[in-house]
Amino acid sequence: MSRSALIIGASGDIGQAVARQLAAAGWSLYLHYFQHALPVQKLQADFIQQYPRQDFFALAYDLTDETQLDQISDQLFQVDAVIFAAGTTTYGLFQETTTVQLERLWEMHVKTPMLLCQRLSAKLARSDYGRIVFVGSVYGGSGSPLEVAYSTVKGAQSAFANAYAREVASQGITVNVVAPGAVDTKMNQLFDATAKTQLRSEIPLSRLATPDEVAYWIQALLKKDAGYLTGQTLYVTGGWRK
Ligand SMILES: NC(=O)c1ccc[n+]([C@@H]2O[C@H](COP(=O)([O-])OP(=O)(O)OC[C@H]3O[C@@H](n4cnc5c(N)ncnc54)[C@H](OP(=O)(O)O)[C@@H]3O)[C@@H](O)[C@H]2O)c1
């Protein structure tokens, strides 16, 4: 039987790259989305055709709503890996960040993923080797002005992985964070050409990452041979700060 992964944020650019790499590697997938069903429907249709022996399901959920989590987790049969690749940021001075913005960031990036880990831990423990991977951020390590709240919740993902990894190690589950620097996705559409040039000049590799270059490390962490690495944050930044 193929291994099954739940990809939270499979409709996003990094999530889609993860889904493509895992499907090609023989995984069955639960593909989560929030407002954009179309990218997930397309992935699902392609995968069903290309990989007829694997299963592909789509599921919608708003991570800022914790009330339906039991129903969502009860729908999943086998879960060998969970990838948290969803989330947005908020730009602006911290002084002007509202309570609602703070709550949404906390719920999306930390609280609901933590609640999902609680609900899926028994399924992950039944796997030969369970895997949890968060898509964190370089800002969780170094912090960024104008994204103070986002940097804080990204740092919290790394802190959670560090602690939870120790608690579930005896169940064969690893918990890690892949923390990208700047990735060429919708999230960075706000930057104009000048800002992107400035950003590139700060990155030793002189370019943004592709979603596939981030997904590569995520799929690598899901392998059996990656089992001795846990509680870590891998900075995939092209040599940029961390
Ligand atoms: N792009 C970068 O430079 C970069 C750098 C470092 C870290 N990251 C992190 O990488 C992850 C993925 O980012 P991306 O660049 O792939 O962004 P993206 O293409 O904008 O995708 C964002 C994903 O988050 C989902 N999402 C947004 N709000 C949600 C909510 N309330 N509930 C559930 N899902 C929600 C979106 O679902 P729908 O589209 O279906 O609504 C989508 O799947 C994020 O955690 C981000 O912080 C990105």
Automatic annotation (TrEMBL):
<dbReference type="InterPro" id="IPR050259">
    <property type="entry name" value="SDR"/>
</dbReference>
<dbReference type="Pfam" id="PF13561">
    <property type="entry name" value="adh_short_C2"/>
</dbReference>
<protein>
    <submittedName>
        <fullName>Elongation factor P 5-aminopentanone reductase</fullName>
    </submittedName>
</protein>
<dbReference type="InterPro" id="IPR002347">
    <property type="entry name" value="SDR_fam"/>
</dbReference>
<keyword id="KW-0251">Elongation factor</keyword>
<comment type="similarity">
    <text>Belongs to the short-chain dehydrogenases/reductases (SDR) family.</text>
</comment>
<dbReference type="GO" id="GO:0003746">
    <property type="term" value="F:translation elongation factor activity"/>
</dbReference>
<dbReference type="InterPro" id="IPR036291">
    <property type="entry name" value="NAD(P)-bd_dom_sf"/>
</dbReference>
<keyword id="KW-0648">Protein biosynthesis</keyword>
